[in-house]
Amino acid sequence: MPQALFLLLVMSCAALLGEGVSGSGDSASTAPAMLPVPPPNCPSNCGKVDIPYPFGIGASECFRAPTFELTCDETTNPPGLYSGDLLVANISMETAEITVYYRGLTSTCNDPDNRTAPPSNVGVRLRSGTAFLISTAGNTFTAVGCGAEARINGNYGTYRTGCMTYCARASESAGDGTPCRGNGCCEASLTADLKEFSVKWVDDFKSPAFNPCQYAFVAKNGWYSFNKSDLTGNMTFSERYKQGTVPIVFDWAIRDGTCTPPSDGSDEAKPVVPSACISKHSSCANARNGPGYFCICDEGYAGNPYTKDGCTNINECDHLISPNSTFRKKSYPCHGGTCQDVEGGYNCKCSFGRTGDGKSDKGCEAIVSLAAIAAIGTISGISLLAVLLLFLHMDRQRRKLRDHFNRNGGQLLKSIKIEIFTKEKLDQITKNYSHIIGRGNFGKVYKGTTSDNVQVAVKRSIAINEDRRKDLFANEITIQSQVSHKNLVQLLGCCLESEVPMLVYEFIPRGSLYDVLHGKDGTGRTHPLPLGARLDIAIYSADGLAYMHSEASHKILHGDVKTGNILLDDEFVPKVSDFGTCRLMSIGKEHTNFVIGDSSYIDPVYMKTGLLTEKSDVYSFGIVLLELITGKMARYDKNNSLPLNYIKAFKDGTTKQMLDTDIASTDEDINCLEMVGRVAVKCLEVDVNDRPTMAQVMQELKMQKIQWLHSHDKIGDAEICTTSVSVYNSHLQNPEISVYKALLSSHPLSS
């Protein structure tokens, strides 16, 4: 809809600011007969704002011309300084700027029926002849909103600029405090010599529902910082900023004169000083915006150049500047010398033994001969100190390695047939531990290659119980090195020179059963694994664990049985890893309370009692069996528990629905998988006494494979009998075979 181009604000103040300076007769070459000098009783401030001449309040002698007249409202607390109707925030002598507040916030809003309400327009107009111009460098035009298009017209139609914003949703806008570059807010710079402007909205504006109001304003640089909350709510932006009051900067100058360059054209000579710059040690500079000039104090002086003797010497040595001064504090270097203040500057006298210019970047430099002597002495001292420190460091490292070696039982391990690697050797083998092949609860595993091109896996533990160092650790390594089973990862050696001992194992190339079943980090299966292979993996893994529990020279508990700790070689033969250390059982002991395992596999009984037994490994192996027959992880589909869900399905008779469809292709396969599932369920019994041993689990799994082979006509009836007897007799030496006989005859596993 057609709208007025702009609504001029600042009425009475515009009239005041617009009054030209008449009759002053300022020029660069001709001074008036009577220079305007403020009387000493003129007020120097109003509230918290200083009033430097040529500005003033009260009598006409207190300000240079009507355009510089201000008023002080003492009815408020604190009193407010005004230029017309505009509240003055600051007057800068150094930059020749005045900052005021004006009703400069324009807005346009949609009503609840999505009809655009008439926008509020604002503007500023300064009359010709005024000392003020809208600052180009000090202000920015800003629009806030999503889909906003605001324009600014100026100088009576001869100047136009604007900017657009876009954001489909509030969440897509720029972040809080970020620059306004079109995403929620935008900015545009102003032209020079700007005497008036007005803000206008485009007629076809339609704001999104979440952004009912759009805003635009010309304000002092840095005043506005974007916030997402400015895009929501109805007029919250205006209310937050004092009902639309914003600061704006005007450039001011003595407009009826110029700063004339020196007649000889020299850059070092002072320009012809105009009449307004009445202080000694003052000069002038042409206005940065529009015609005219402003006065400045000479280098080495600070103060008010518009008053008599207003520019005073700066004490550079103390860096003292009047608290009421608007001049920026300057740094005056004096390196290696003593500062001496002089009129209009300072000297820097070099200290004894130094020469040069203390005010330069290099400062006062030491005399060469002294520098040479100091350098020789310093270099000699540093060299001796470096040699001593190197010797001490090497000796400390040797003692540290020797101490680690002894604390980790190195003297005891020298007598066994296991290779003891030095730390330096392992650094070379692992290429400084650059190739990580596994992470676990106890540390990291690195791949390495020995000088004989044998690939090894180096396990670097996170920590070790201090109480289990030396003799006990050495005994554990000794026994573990004697463990020899085709389904257990072989320990090849160790390194005792590190704070926590490192173990060297044979390298198993295909990775873990977890990786084969679920892919790296559970990202999906990478290798097809048929049912026969899964049965073999289950049988051989159980065989390795049964050996640890009953056939090794000392009972060894694993404590962290999971698919991630069952490694597969190139032929998919399983090897149980991550066992032995920290879980070795002494003779006659039935449990240990030192274990760190995967929470998805840990025995609930252990969680309650803190005691680890061989039946804890049986529980964890039951979950491994479920992973083999279902293809699911121990925790799957965000946080479903595989053992809990399978036991529920087992009780409901719906386990078939949970089986891995890749291997459940025939009725015989499904029957075999369900029988393996029954074994797993038995392993997961709450009462540890109802759980089978690992030897019993292995035997039952062997029987299930034999029956599965027979169901596929891969083995005859006579072979079944022969094979079953062979399986039975192969474990006659097992002291638990009587328990297993009873299990086969009466236990539900054999049903």
From TrEMBL:
InterPro entries documented for this protein: EGF (IPR000742), EGF-like_Ca-bd_dom (IPR001881), Growth_fac_rcpt_cys_sf (IPR009030), Kinase-like_dom_sf (IPR011009), Prot_kinase_dom (IPR000719), Protein_kinase_ATP_BS (IPR017441), Ser-Thr/Tyr_kinase_cat_dom (IPR001245), Ser/Thr_kinase_AS (IPR008271)
Record: residues binding ATP: K459
Signal peptide (residue range): 1-20
A molecular-function term among this protein's GO annotations: calcium ion binding
Residue intervals of the Protein kinase domain: 431-709
Keywords on record: ATP-binding, Disulfide bond, Glycoprotein, Kinase, Membrane, Nucleotide-binding, Serine/threonine-protein kinase, Signal, Transferase, Transmembrane, Transmembrane helix
Segments crossing the lipid bilayer: 367-392
Domain of life: Eukaryota
PROSITE patterns, sorted: PROTEIN_KINASE_ATP, PROTEIN_KINASE_DOM, PROTEIN_KINASE_ST
Compartments where found: Membrane
Membrane topology according to the record: Single-pass type I membrane protein
Cellular component terms (Gene Ontology): plasma membrane
Kinase as UniProt keyword: yes
The keyword ATP-binding belongs to this UniProt entry's keyword annotation: yes
GO biological process: cell surface receptor signaling pathway
Coiled-coil annotated residue ranges, if any: none
Protein name: Protein kinase domain-containing protein
Gene name, Swiss-Prot/TrEMBL: LOC100826414
